[in-house]
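Researcher: I'd like a structural prediction for the single chain below. Treat it as a standalone chain; there are no partners to consider.
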Amino acid sequence: MDPRVATLLSHVRANAENRPGVYRMLGPSGELLYVGKSVRVRTRLLSYFRADEGEKAAEIISQAHQLEWEYTPSEFAALLHEFRLIKSHRPLYNVQHKRDRSHCFLQITREAVPRLRVVGQPGGSSGAEYFGPFHGRHTMAEVVRAVSDLLELRDCPSDTPMRLADQIQLFPTKEDPRCLRGQTARCISPCAGGCTQAEYLERVALARAFLNGESDRPLVILRERMAMAARRLQFEYAAELRDRAERLEHVQSWIVELGRTLRRLSLVYTVQGQAGGEDRTYVLRRGRIRAEVPAPQTLEEQAALDARVRDIFSLPEPEAIGLRAQEAQELMLIAKWFRLHPEELEGTVPASARTGSGEASEEVEEARAALALTLERTVEGPGGVEEDDSEPAPTDAAGG
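Model: Treating it as a single chain, here is the predicted structure.
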């Protein structure tokens, strides 16, 4: 064994404990190589030294010059701390945080001429908007194709040159659309002066409104085409458009319902400490943690927590379904936690019970049952049918 690796192993054996926590592996210049979490830090760290050559764990430990760890009150606290460290520092070996290939998101890109597309994970463009998570990339790709065609949005690569009608040109030239969609009037052709930027962004706003359940414009266009086809006695084409409209309407209602039910992740969650850790209480609003405090032990501490909950939920917040990358990732993390640990729902209380409505115990139980159903919906496609279009993500009960 390399002397440096042997020194790290001795350090772990002498000092690490089997408690929940987060560990960090640093390179020769102190750069952060990897962040992981485990409910048993000592056992998890020792497993790196037993990894076979060629495994990722063996590669990481071979590059590490320093190991650091810190303990957390619980596995949930470790999960959150790991998530935040990865998002802040983007370590070399943490390519993606808890990648889950069974889910996808709809993304409205942050570009001068935005696109609507399907992505596996939120990230990259910090200003992009995300709708999801959804199960079934194929279904979502059909939605993107239909909405883009009906609203005539571009779907070309991001590096395609744009020539908007309101761009100043020293030597104006007439250009033809760069793709078949533009040539067949299924794209408004921002690449060939087919629209101004304002006109294109109006179409993007309609797509956003459709995904938020605030507009049926794509469906209206489909129905108008269906009626025209029927008047022209093109009955087969009209039937095809009718079926397409029904599918799109069904998917839209599913997207909107999923977004609305995910808002049920507005609750007060108390987590019991593990291995001597303190109990902690988390305040969640729309799937994001807005406050974290030691669990109240006295009436005064409980009153202070209730006041803080009321303050958090008294602030106005947009009702749009779309999320920024960090919001979508955190929501996915929280939803997955409760999905994998349904017993933890017993430690939750709906925020409404702490903001003045004073729900009865049976109503709290009903809210928990509704939340459990909501979490199941995040792994189902429209109509409750799962699409097996990607391999499942690996799991690691020990963390990391």
